[in-house]
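Deviations from the work plan: none for this task. Representative record:
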Amino acid sequence: MKEKQQNVLIIGAGLCGSLLALRLGQRGYNVSVYEMRPDLRKVDISAGRSINLAFSNRGNKATKLVGLEDKVKSLCIPMTGRMIHDAHGNTFQSNYSGRDYEYINSISRGELNALLLDEAEKHKNVNIYFNKKCKSVDFEKTTALFKDHNTKDEFVEDADIIIATDGAGSAMRKSYYLGKKFLFSFSQDYLTHGYKELSILPKENGDYKTYKNALHIWPRGNLMLIALPNLDGSFTVTLFLSYDEGKYNFNNLTTDNRVLEFFQEAFPDALALMPNLVNDFFENPTAPLGTIKCSPWHYKGNTLLMGDAAHAIVPFYGQGMNASFEDVVEFDKVLDQNLGDWEAIFKTYENTRKKDTDAIADLAIDNFHEMKGHVNQVIFQEKRKLEMALEKEFPNDYSSKYSLVTFKEDIGYREAMLRGRAQDKAILNMLSDKKIDINGNLKDILYKVKQETEAILEDDRIAGLYQR
Amino acid sequence: MKEKQQNVLIIGAGLCGSLLALRLGQRGYNVSVYEMRPDLRKVDISAGRSINLAFSNRGNKATKLVGLEDKVKSLCIPMTGRMIHDAHGNTFQSNYSGRDYEYINSISRGELNALLLDEAEKHKNVNIYFNKKCKSVDFEKTTALFKDHNTKDEFVEDADIIIATDGAGSAMRKSYYLGKKFLFSFSQDYLTHGYKELSILPKENGDYKTYKNALHIWPRGNLMLIALPNLDGSFTVTLFLSYDEGKYNFNNLTTDNRVLEFFQEAFPDALALMPNLVNDFFENPTAPLGTIKCSPWHYKGNTLLMGDAAHAIVPFYGQGMNASFEDVVEFDKVLDQNLGDWEAIFKTYENTRKKDTDAIADLAIDNFHEMKGHVNQVIFQEKRKLEMALEKEFPNDYSSKYSLVTFKEDIGYREAMLRGRAQDKAILNMLSDKKIDINGNLKDILYKVKQETEAILEDDRIAGLYQR
């Protein structure tokens, strides 16, 4: 299989598709990318508001791979921890790690996407076409049907392989599902909560209205508000709220007064920063929070799903983009194995990758519960404090679940999940049983946590819990 | 809401639909049932072979509820345990319970369904229509579109409520999914294995060719054969095998010789009882093993999914029909609460029931791994032996996971799963750590198992594992 002779069709030029196009372009493939939206470098398609994302170590592996680490870094705003706003307006910061050099970043989706498109198009073997919406994929013939947004014409493209990076609503995944040509396992799971994006605008002088270098959280048990900084001095704020349960919910917040009353009651300090709240609230859509898993991702050696098209997750671990970028890194590693044919490549990629994307999907849901509720509970706060101290005192010997997932980019999500959950369980139980104590000797505590974590993992292994 | 004035439309006259029709008929509703197949009492639709199912305590709650306990019992063949056939042709029996009065039954799907249809039709307020296939449901208008198999005419029926009991391929569930009128969580998960039904015919004198009162299993690690007795002296045999992995799989068993060679190698003692093997093998279809979960089951107070339409499971716990029958019992209990409107009834039913049907789906997959693999492992065999002894010695104080699921019909599947898994983990770990011993004092062992089980449940509770 000579790489240069292969025609690769990529559906979707979002973050994953444009990164993949760049990487495959660098490797010498003939790459054609079809994107349903207009070119975001020319048309403002985000309705005037920059939407930001969390960018961390796993995503950074990919930007390193394609040689864009420094350029991407210049788009990043470091967030060293969570700034928690309690119901009384008090704030306290909870760092993401006890190691100073570990933090996450806020980055603009649009800016990053534009950078990747620019870099991909520098390769003459990469061509990107906008306003071409994929309607369906014939995975047996390796062809895709598109509709041109402007001319309304439909046309078919074929290729040696098709990779769909067309996001959570993937047209190719729909073709897998509706085609019924093979057994396609599939799930879409919605939380009872939806989300809505709001904003905290900059001060008149362009400064940030609240502390810049943190991910702000207003946890309120069954609902939550968060805010991430943008380079222009604003924050993108996201409200997570039930559709139909509780005193205030998306279905019953129908008037200006009710929205203001709700924020006054739940988030008075945030409301003070958001004179534009009511406008934002009624102009911006309410969107669902869904998890998508499926299998197989590939059909023979013809077609492959990647990124959100294969595994969409809820945003609570800040890992959505990072997981999709890591997909490209893992796929690139499989290409390096020179397996000889696309079916072997796709199969190997899915076999090594799927367990990890399943894990981050589950972890993201765990974190939904942790962020809106647990961060307020004493035992979880004690655990967090202890873990910060352990990471600070023993930087090479301890990493919390959050650190394993976010900063230990050399282990997979599944390993991070299993070890991280066992550690959490060990610490919570030893705190509860008074076997360790927040003021105890740290070396002693580290030893006990490690012992207990291993015991928990071993007990689960004996009970056969990791066999599948 | 006067029960007698309510028109209930049921889609599907399988086991769940005909039981539900009977019960709602008994309660006085006007019930119309539409079934896509012909009347199985008049037309032989099972291609000449009776297919049997496992019937146990939870199913029996439903037959008691409708007053058919004795009639159903006359269709049952008790199976007191698993008869395990090892690779050398040795057999040993492993009872389902240490209590003699706890066993499961083999029952003919067709005979049971016919009985339920007969009983339902005795009520003049119940009408059953055959050869009417549901194409879709308009859940906003509470109408269903049908096609008559004979005349090919399409027609619309409306009702006060529609309950779909149309099985794993439910047309109404498809309407929920495709309608996109509300957030519909849905999953279909296939195992890598499929199944094929085969048979052991009676001896010429009508006797059974092997022991009648057991569920026969030939576990072979990654594949398995099972057999359940029929009243006519035959056994229905089911082969569970990977589609495409291992030396022998469904995709490569394409010739008479290969099938015979496979059985000669894997199941020589079964082969000796199956001179008709090759015929059966190539005449009968290979079918997938899927799990279906979804939510919500109901749309407002208009429509409701029940039975396999709401929660199809793999057959390895013998609970598919039992779970669907228990649905009817639970629904009946909610009707007794006189909640006043259908939306409240449907919501209450789903809230109380879904956690349990989710649990039996997961348990059934656990048992797939246990049946084909674990039953051959020493530590699992020791656990089983110990649990039999505990159940025998302390009949009121101990129940294995299997017994909790199968025979303790007064607790829900979820409680059975949580307690059963914790017990399994406790026993396996204590055996492994030599804290208990198969020859130890039973009273002592019971005490330790209970202590350890409680500790495991408590540790999980503290770690927040049961909150969601």
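Chain B has three domains: 3-75+108-188+289-368, 190-288, 377-462.
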